[in-house]
Please model this.
Amino acid sequence: MTTYTLTQGRVPLLISMPHNGQQIPPDIAAMMQPFALTVPDTDWYLDRLYAFAKDLGCGLINPVNSRYVIDLNRPPDNAVLYAGANNTELCPTSAFDLRSLYRDGKTPDETEVARRIDLYWRPYHRALQQELARLKAEHGYAILFEAHTIRSQVPRFFDGRLTDINFGTADGASCGDTLRDAFTAVDTGHYSNVLNGRFKGGYITRHYGKPADHIHAVQLELTQINYLNEDTFEWNADEAEKIAAVLKQIIANLIAAKLKPN
Model:
């Protein structure tokens, strides 16, 4: 069973898109509310936004399934990422708008969650770990770029409109200063940006980013209003082209950063 796709690159940067998948296996779909099958909380069109990555030599890893099946950016013990906030779970039971994802009596129990960890969570993380190890062995260091998008307004998580470009480095713990300086040097033009604001990086950024071990991780949470219609999820080609140019420069700066190899 294929649960992810991995394309190896020629530079030491791997782009992970853990919320880009849209499929829901039939056995899980049968347990869900009809609206959940439209997977509205997807990080839409990430592969199109980062279409330039292949030409830059980046590797990419993508899951097949939706975050509703299991959230690959959550720890396997379901520990809370943001204390005091309304967090989503390892196997989400509600959508961002708080509607229940499951039919009455069909919420996954501990046995079902454990099954999904084994079938969907572990393979992605095993591949992620192995690819970072390969990049480090080849280049002396590895850079993990966590690509995410979200609606510009989600009252469950934050008040008002979110900053356009949200960088997260676990308050500086997941990447070194040289890499931080590389992406913060990019002129984002009229797009607002913040470092370690509302989004500081999820489990993947925090777990794999170990600068002392020459593995650096950066998360970028982009507001979807900058490239699609947030009501219909329709792709806006003109706006997407503009924001993709900024994303391309961010990735190019990360690749060009002069990091000390192991």
About this structure: Helices lie at 26-29, 46-49, 53-56, 110-139, 177-184, 203-208, 237-256.
